[in-house]
Amino acid sequence: MGGLVLHGVTAGYRNRKVIEGFDLPPVPPGTLLGLIGPNAAGKSTLLRAVAGLGKIQAGSITLDGTELPALTPARRAALVGYLPQTLPTPSPLVAYEAVLSACRAVRGDLSPAQAESAIAHAFERLGISALALRRMSELSGGQRQMVGLAQVMVRDPRLLLLDEPTSALDLRWQLSVVEAVRNAVRASGAIGIIAIHDINLAIRACDQVAVLSRGRLLAAGSPGDVVTPGVLAESFGVEARVEACSQGVPVVLVDRALV
Amino acid sequence: MSDGTLAQRAPAAATPSLATGYAGFVRKRIIMLSLLAVALVLALLADIATGPAQLSLGTVVSGIFDPASLPRPIQVILWNVRLPYAIMAVLVGASLGLAGAEMQTVLNNPLASPFTLGVSAAATLGASLVIVMGLAPFGVPQHIAVPVGAFAFAAGASVLVQGLARLRGTGVDSVVLFGIALVFALNAAVALLQFVADAETLQQIVFWGMGSLARSSWPKIAVVAVVLAVCLPFSMLQVWKMTALRAGEAQAESLGIDTNRLRLVVMLRASLLAATAVAFVGTIGFVGLVGPHMARLLLGEDHRFFLPGAALAGAVVLSLASIASKMLVPGLIIPVGIVTSLVGVPLFLALLFGRGRG
Question: Do B14 and A124 make contact, defined as CB atoms within 8 angstroms?
Answer without folding.
Answer: yes
